[in-house]
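Page 42, continued from yesterday. The earlier attempt failed because a stray header line got pasted into the input along with the sequence. Redoing it now with the clean sequence only.
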Amino acid sequence: MRMISTLAIAFALVGGATAAMADTPGPDWMPVEAVTQQLRDAGYTRIIQIEADDGHWEGEGIKDGRKMEFRVDPRSGMIIYEEPD
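This time it went through. Structure tokens are written below.
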């Protein structure tokens, strides 16, 4: 019984590691520097955080003096979601 529990934990850890590795930019994604420039062109004065997550660029920044949360299409650089954080 103890062996089964150990194996279950090992598989859970490997599955978690695989999920984390999936959050990397794809080969056809815009580089983060280009996305950051797109955000600046859209009025963001500061990018606090930006990372690949769930198939898009996601992060936080300052726009119009307010902290905003955003998501950006990884291929076009268009903002697909933003709201105050």
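Notes: The chain has one domain: 2-84.
Reminder to self: strip header lines before submitting.
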